[in-house]
Design brief:
The protein is mostly helical. It has helices spanning about 1-25, 30-40, 40-55, 60-75, 80-99. The protein starts with a helix and ends with a helix.
Amino acid sequence: MKLWLCVLAVSAANWLMKAAGPLVLGKRDLPPALVSVTKLTAPALLAGLIVTDLGGRTIDWTQLIGVGVAGILNLLRVPMLPAAAAGVATTALIRLASA
């Protein structure tokens, strides 16, 4: 439960940061370098949450494979939500098959 509250808090903060830019800058275009850094915010936050959640205990290999699938799909330019859903589905299917 604590993790999901953190996910919601980080999502809200991320949304507020992304909304602040257009409100402050108006109709001016951002430099391409800044746009590329902004696109990396969500994957970096997700990676940080995953690392802190997995750290300090025995590694669950099914979970690690699911994270790998989501990461590979993200590298292939699949949007974040479907990539994360595919990682969750992969983890669930591996656990179901190994039970």
